[in-house]
Design goal:
Blueprint: H1 2-24, E1 27-33, E2 42-47, E3 51-53, H2 57-60, E4 66-72, E5 84-86, E6 92-101, E7 103-107, E8 113-118, E9 125-127, E10 131-132, E11 135-140, E12 152-155, E13 161-162, E14 171-174, E15 181-184, E16 187-192, E17 195-201, E18 214-215, E19 227-229, E20 236-237, E21 250-253, E22 259-260, E23 273-276, E24 298-301, E25 307-308, E26 320-322, E27 329-330, E28 343-345, E29 352-353, E30 366-369, E31 389-391, E32 395-396, E33 400-402, E34 409-413, E35 429-430, E36 443-445, E37 452-453, E38 466-469, E39 475-476, E40 489-492, H3 496-501, E41 503-504, E42 516-519, E43 522-525
Parallel strand pairs: 1-6, 8-11, 9-12, 11-13, 12-14, 17-18, 18-20, 19-21, 20-22, 21-23, 23-24, 24-26, 25-27, 26-28, 27-29, 28-30, 30-31, 34-35, 35-37, 36-38, 37-39, 38-40, 39-41, 40-42
Antiparallel strand pairs: 1-2, 3-5, 4-6, 7-8, 10-11, 15-16, 16-17, 32-33, 33-34, 42-43
């Protein structure tokens, strides 16, 4: 009996102590301050020592241009409290919301603000600020960032420049009164006098507005679209316009376009062909030399083209060019240093091919001139810098192109990437530029029987280090072994006397690295 009384007494004392403790908990007032001049305070009630769920500051105040970092007892301190905290004070606590700038500004010398940085923090709708510290915000030069998922953007009337749109945006609204920008069919258009410049598109774009006269820089960069139709009337395409459009398979450029900026098709890994329509006014384009630098595919020139201007595709990464039957002129350097170019068929109407039009292309390029029964007027013997050219009656085998059926003169190599070449006994003459642009040739042995090196035959062969000349050699043309900078050793398979009898034109060895000829019975110093 005594044990039961003791047990109940113990329980009672515990309950009494618990209740007493509860009664000792003092009420506490927690005042939350926005830490902004425009934000009124919010008050919540709690008891000292209790766990309290603090609200997110975004739920209390409409703040768009700041990122909430947490609550602090100091208006300029570090976050002390997050969403679930306890307080020991028995009276009151003041907490201040701490923020980081979502948007950074720079004051322009003309008295307005420029947005220079933006940090995305989860909002789906975003309004670009119209004012900051009492002055207008006129320019947005900030990057949206890769994690941005803004789906609706509102551009105020004050904005006169915006660098880009978020890739995620589906709806863009331009406030009434904005004299620089407008929206038309999901196209953000900049109005510059008579020019209507496409500066951004939304994810819902179906076609480009027909009033567009220019497409700005990087407008479609990174787009997942498979096809983009450019309307007639567009005159210029900005640099990087289609960069990283990895799903884009083909694109047609209208004849109204006269300029395409550098790196326009960079990293378009699925792009198989680009069709360029004829410009009716001049049939030429003012391409940036870097326009096709990063596009390793096919370019098709529509019927109507008559001229390919100087250096139009110089340095391009294209692998094939399809030329129209209307073409008449290919100007100087048009495809020079297009190092991946392997396929070219020259139509029979071409009358002029400029100096070095196809120099420094793929080592295995074939320039197909089989529609010609003879060389076109305007032909230069070195217009193609020694590249392989096949005419209708061309004589060739797997290794060389010859001047005629006797196979006595080599005009070109079929594959310029080889490390060595073996000539048939019939060969007596090495033609102009035959060994130019042979990147892997560091040793060359010309066999007995070869009698003539024509001008520039081994010109500018930069990989060449050693050269062996036959005793049958009778003449060396001008610049025949010139500008071989790393050529240090030249051997002649004959005597000094015979070497001196060889006819050598002026500057046959100009700019090369060797200073003597090693003969079978001595040396000749140059």
């Amino acid at each position: 009996m005594k044990k039961k009384i003791t047990y109940f007494l113990l329980v009672f004392l515990i309950l009494f102590a618990f209740v007493a403790c509860e009664e000792e908990k003092a009420p506490i007032t927690i005042t939350l301050y926005a830490n902004f001049t425009y934000g009124g305070a919010e008050v919540i009630q709690a008891k000292a020592g209790d766990k309290v769920t603090l609200p997110d500051a975004y739920d209390l105040w409409d703040v768009q241009d700041k990122i909430f970092r947490g609550w602090s007892t100091s208006s300029s301190g570090y976050p002390e409290y997050e969403a679930y905290s306890s307080f020991s004070s028995k009276t009151s606590v003041s907490l201040y919301a701490l923020w980081s700038d979502k948007v950074s500004y720079s004051l322009n010398e003309k008295g307005y603000y420029v947005v220079t940085n933006y940090i995305y923090s989860g909002e789906r709708t975003y309004t670009i600020p119209e004012y900051y510290q009492g002055l207008p915000v006129k320019e947005w030069r900030a990057s949206w960032g890769n994690d941005c998922n803004v789906t609706e953007l509102i551009i105020p009337a004050s904005i006169t420049y915006i660098s880009s749109l978020p890739k995620s945006v589906g709806t863009v609204s331009v406030a009434a009164g904005n004299s620089v920008y407008k929206m038309d069919n999901n196209c953000l258009i900049q109005i510059d006098g008579e020019e209507k410049i496409l500066v951004g598109v939304t994810k819902n774009l179906s076609y480009i507005s027909s009033e567009i006269t220019k497409i700005g820089n990087y407008v479609f960069a990174g787009s997942d679209k498979t096809y983009i139709s450019i309307p007639y009337g567009v005159k210029e395409i900005g640099y990087g316009c289609f960069a990283n459009c990895k799903n884009l398979t083909d694109i047609s450029i209208p004849s109204s376009v006269t300029y395409i900026g550098s790196n326009a098709f960079e990293n378009c890994t699925s792009l198989e062909s680009i069709t360029l329509s004829c410009n009716s006014s001049s049939t030429t384009y003012n391409f940036s030399k870097m326009c096709f630098e990063d596009y390793n595919g096919k370019v098709i020139l529509d019927e109507g083209w008559t001229i390919i201007a100087e250096d139009s595709f110089s340095g391009a990464s294209i692998s094939e060019i399809v030329l129209p039957s209307t073409l008449k002129e290919i100007h100087q350097g048009a495809f020079s240093h297009a190092e991946n170019l392997e396929k070219v068929k020259i139509p029979s109407n071409v009358t002029t091919i400029g100096w070095y039009a196809f120099s420094h292309n793929s080592p295995t390029i074939v320039i197909d001139c089989t529609d010609f029964t003879s060389t076109p007027s305007g032909w230069k013997s070195n217009w193609n810098y020694g590249q392989t050219t096949l005419f209708k009656n061309t004589v060739y085998d797997d290794d060389y192109v010859y001047s005629d059926n006797t196979k006595s003169q080599v005009l070109a190599l079929r594959d310029r990437s080889k490390t060595e070449y073996t000539f048939p006994e019939s060969v007596k003459t090495i033609g102009e530029y035959v060994f130019n642009d042979t990147p892997n040739l560091n040793k060359l042995i010309l066999p007995e029987g070869i009698e003539t090196l024509l001008s520039d035959a081994i010109y500018n062969t930069l990989a060449l280090e050693t050269l062996s000349l036959p005793s049958t050699l009778k003449s060396i043309g001008s610049y025949a072994i010139a500008h071989c900078q790393f050529l240090k050793e030249v051997k002649y398979n004959g005597t000094v006397e015979n070497w001196n009898k060889i006819t050598k034109n002026n500057e046959w060895s100009k700019g090369s690295g060797f200073t003597k000829i090693i003969c079978t019975d001595g040396e000749v110093t140059l």
